[in-house]
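Supplementary Note 3. Input sequence used for the single-chain structure prediction.
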Amino acid sequence: MRSLWGVADNAPFSFQVLPSRLYLLSGVFFGHDFEAARSQLEAFFMHKSSYEHMAACAGQFLDGNKPLSILDIGSYDVNGSYRPVFDRPGWQYRGVDLAAGPNVDLVLESPYRLPLASRSVDVVVSGQAFEHVPFFWLSWLEMVRVVKPGGHIFLIAPSRGPEHRYPEDCWRFYPDGFQALAAWGRVHALSIHTDWTPHHDADSALWGDTVGVFQVPEQSLWTRCRAGLICRLAQRLVPGC
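The predicted structure, written as discrete structure tokens, is reproduced below.
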């Protein structure tokens, strides 16, 4: 089966690692103890600090009195989700992932294509996912495309941590990397910081995150056409797109 990261694997299972839980995306265990394996992996990848980062972003940059639409990319709930962070009157939270299941409102066919209208969402969030996406810069352009002018993107990705190949582990991110994403998507970086000091929680101490808050401005027709052309060319030329 094809995982969210666009890689067709012969491996019997694939996971998306997200904050303090694992999101099972696709695959079938052949002769494996599913529950035991999942419990072991969940215990190893508990990541409390990422929840705290997302809650802080929402608290600082979003108006709790304003109706908002929130899209969570990579939302399959095995051991918790970001949904409680955005559970407020007037806020509409939707989770998207490659597999149907808990906390998934919309099933994707590809991590590089969001079946949503351009400029239709107020906030896009994604945590602990980009390190597993081979061509994350293409996913980023799609995230930018669906956000309304003036809307926000909250992105959390590891700056350090053990290799966790579910099914692959491609990247780590520093502040300059997030600044490059802002330039690539022609968006404003409002806040970028990295966890250089280990978190006090023992399960989070192994991990460090880079956390970015971006705002999508009103973009010119040329900028939007450029992004669309890049994505369409990638769908034809890049494996897995």
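The chain is about 25% helix and 25% strand. The first helix runs from residue 34 to 44.
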